[in-house]
Amino acid sequence: MDSGNTAWLLASSALVCLMIPGIAFFYGGMVGSRRILNMMLMCFGGASLVAVLWVLYGYSASFGNSLTGAGLLGDPLEFLGLSDLLVEDEASALPLALFAAFQLMFACVTTALVAGAAAGRMKFGAWMLFAGLWATLVYFPVAHWVFAFSSEDGSVTGGWIANQLGAIDFAGGTAVHLNAGVAALALALVLGRSKGWPHSHGKPHSRPLVLLGAGLLWVGWYGFNAGSALSAGHTAAVVFLNTAVAAAAGLLGWMLMDRLRLGTSSSLGAASGLISALVAITPACGAVSPLGALAIGLLAGLVCSLAIEWKYRLGYDDSLDVVGVHAVGGLLGTLLIGLFATEAAPNGVSGLFYGGGFELLGIQALAAGAVLVYSFVVTWVIAKVLALTIGLRIPEESELQGIDLAAHAESAYLNDEDPVELGARP
């Protein structure tokens, strides 16, 4: 085993873990002051539950040998409990336990992203049950499709998108962002709109927290993307560079669109442009040149800034724009690989603009379409079953009062009028 590669993946795993509090701060700042604790706990709680499921069967379902060789689901019993990963595999270039930990963070981040569509109106217990079911029935199978590669000797069969189809998704444009964004749409539709939406919809209570969360996500994303190279070498360096320049272009693109449409540039728009570009470059970071990364980042900032308005026209309450940023950004980045991919980049495949024709674009579209349909349908069924059994919505009075007190008996902020002393439980 290469100690340098191992050290890089250890650091990358920690960086991806940093994205969980990053999402919590980003989402937490975007909701009202009486919703922030619930929003942040949805992120931490859902991620923690997924970590437990990952040990029990999630890693096996994602990276185990494909059942019947169909490439749809890994054997959930192959690495049951992950005890087998305690034994060092001399044939592996990296400790398998470390690879499992790295991919665990992806599962946690993806689940936390979905929470943004349900801010302020979903029972916390219902969310936790939904998160576990969603990870089991949606994320783990899709991760197998996209991230599980077959072994060179044919002894292990991986997912159909990565192997049979041959689509490019370097770090999770389909499995993470498109998957989470489409799931957020399905959950929002079943959950229904917030009371008084959109006229009385709460504004972000702390834009500095939004920027803090976006900053943590920006730093963590280098582990997310460059860590997916699984080695500290040329590929990781190219991916790191592409991620950095795309993020900057996306921030500027969204701010420019805000300036043209609204006459001003906002901190919330800058943070959203940054995240949308990071989403879009995630699948493409190993396939494009730095110029291609700039183009993808800029397009993501421009397109996603318009896409967030769809919820008002179509009437769905996606509280924190998970659909407009992650679903649209993930789809955009996945498809643009078919245009901007260059054989000179680490993935070694050319898209339409580099003489590769339309074939790669078609492959990318098929991969994105499969994830989109599967995630939406299964998520809708999960949410609908829970709505008809245990119920998803908190009582109307609790929603109007603020979910923090109703669900957690806590307030994020105390003032002189509150009868509770600092540090005491209300």
Describe the overall structure.
There is one protein chain. The protein is mainly alpha-helical and 426 residues long. The chain is 65% helix and 0% strand. It contains 15 helices and no strands. Helix 3 packs across helix 4. The C terminus is likely disordered. It is found in: Cell membrane; Membrane. It comes from Arthrobacter jiangjiafuii.
Structural class, by secondary structure, is mainly alpha
Contiguous low-pLDDT stretches (5 residues minimum) are 416-426
Q: How much is the radius of gyration in Å?
A: 21 Å
Count of β-strands:
0
Q: Strands, helices and their partners?
A:
Blueprint: H1 3-30, H2 36-63, H3 96-114, H4 124-147, H5 161-165, H6 173-191, H7 207-226, H8 234-262, H9 267-284, H10 290-307, H11 310-314, H12 322-340, H13 359-389, H14 396-401, H15 403-408
Helix pairs in contact: 1-2, 1-3, 1-7, 2-3, 2-4, 3-4, 3-6, 4-6, 4-13, 6-12, 6-13, 7-8, 7-9, 8-9, 8-10, 9-10, 9-12, 10-12, 12-13
Subcellular location: Cell membrane; Membrane
Transmembrane segments: 6-27, 39-57, 93-115, 127-150, 170-192, 204-224, 236-255, 262-281, 287-308, 320-341, 361-383
Family: Belongs to the ammonia transporter channel (TC 1.A.11.2) family.
